Amino acid sequence: MSKENLKMVKIASVFHPHGIKGQAELRLLNENYDECILDEGMKVYFYPVNEKSQVSKGGEEWVIQKLQFGNKVICTFEGVKDRTHLETMLPFELFVPRESFPEPENDEVYLVDLVDWDVVNPQGEKLGTLESFSDNGMQYLFDVRLNDGSVTTLPYVDAFFPEIDSENKKIVMILPEYSE
Question: Residue 32 gets which letter from DSSP?
């Protein structure tokens, strides 16, 4: 299952086993467990992090058998026989299809939905396109591919991104003024 075929969203990374029964320790991207969409019986997709992982480069579909939240997030996947079996798959990233997410509230939007939206200045002139986003632990960062081909990375704060126009799929951006 290619990440390109469906809009796939990375939810977690898995680098470590937990115990001897093949359980995995998940490192969730969103550490707010109340907002986690993962659930028992849910289909998820694994993609290898590097060549050490024996997960297929094209991805593999797995089903969550058991999920436990505590000091760590521990997950058992159907078909993982034991710790040794899990270790052959490590490290991998865990993705879910975007369609698995609940619909956002009226004035909310998932950041993943903003990718490829036009980025415009306050006058509505196109400056570029939102290429990607990341989280530096303090705030989200938007990577905007400008019309000249360069990429600028700015924090997703009101000073730079005062408006998200969901109806027209546009993001208003105020470019910072640089001085030397």
Answer: -
Same domain, 138 and 81: no
Banded pLDDT at 6 (limits 50, 70, 90): low
The range of the structural domain enclosing residue 89 comes to 8-100
SS3 of residue 87 by DSSP: helix
Long-range contacts of 158-164 (CB under 8 A, 24+ apart): 162/122, 164/109, 164/114
Asked whether residue 117 falls in the same domain as residue 141, the answer is yes
In tens, the pLDDT along 43-99 reads 999 999 999 999 999 999 999 999 999 989 999 999 999 999 999 999 999 999 989
Q: What is the DSSP letter of 177?
A: P
SS3 letters across 93-156: EEEEEHHHCCCCCCCCCCHHHHCCCEEECCCCCEEEEEEEEEECCCCEEEEEEECCCCEEEEEC
Share of the chain above pLDDT 70, in %: 96
| Stretch 123-130: mean pLDDT | 96
Choose the final residue of a domain: 74, 100, 126: 100
Residues 132 and 94 in one domain: no
Q: Tell whether 84 and 15 lie within a shared domain.
A: yes
Distance CA 42, CA 125 (A): 42
User: Would you call 61 helix, strand, or coil by DSSP?
Assistant: strand
